[in-house]
Amino acid sequence: MVFRSPVVFKAYEGKPLVATILTQGAMNVFEDFRYTDQLEDRDAAALIFNARVGDRKLDGLDLLRFDGDGKVRELSVMVRPMSGLNALAEAMGREFERLGITPPGV
Questions:
Q1: 93-102 pLDDT, tens per residue?
Q2: pLDDT tens for residues 4-37?
Q3: Cis peptide preceding 81, ω within 30 of 0
Q4: What's the distance, CA 41 to chain centroid?
Q5: How far is CA 50 from CA 41, 62, 69, in A?
Q6: Rounded to an integer, what is the distance from CA 30 to the centroid of its chain?
Q7: Inter-residue contact 1 to 11 (CB < 8 Å)
Q8: Which among 3, 30, 51, 59 is least surrounded, fewest beta carbons within 10 Å?
Q9: Is the dihedral of CA 16, 21, 22, 28 positive or negative?
Q10: Mean pLDDT for the chain?
Q11: Are strands 31-40 and 44-53 parallel, antiparallel or unpaired?
C-alpha cells in the first residue's frame, strides 16, 4: 500500500503505516469530513470531499488505484485551496509528532 500525501514529496509505504496515518492522524485532524461525489473505473476511483481543519474549509480528492484483486494499492490525496492545505500540513505535523512518525525524505 502506498499513500501519496498532498504535503510531502515522497510517498509513505506499507499498510500498517498508512493505516496509522489515516485512522490515528487524519481522522483527528479533519472536522466535518464528508464525501460529496464518487467517480469509478475498473482500476481506479476518485472520491471528492469537503472538510474543515480548524477554521479553514477545504476541498479534496482521494484517488484510489486498485490491484488485480480489487484491493487498494495506492491512495493519492489532493487538497485545495492553499490556505486549507497549509492548515492541514500544520495539523498533520503535530499529529505525526504525537504518533512518532517521521515524514519520508526528512
A1: 999 999 999 8
A2: 999 888 999 999 999 999 999 999 999 999 999 9
A3: yes
A4: 20
A5: 22, 11, 29
A6: 10
A7: no
A8: 59
A9: positive
A10: 94
A11: antiparallel
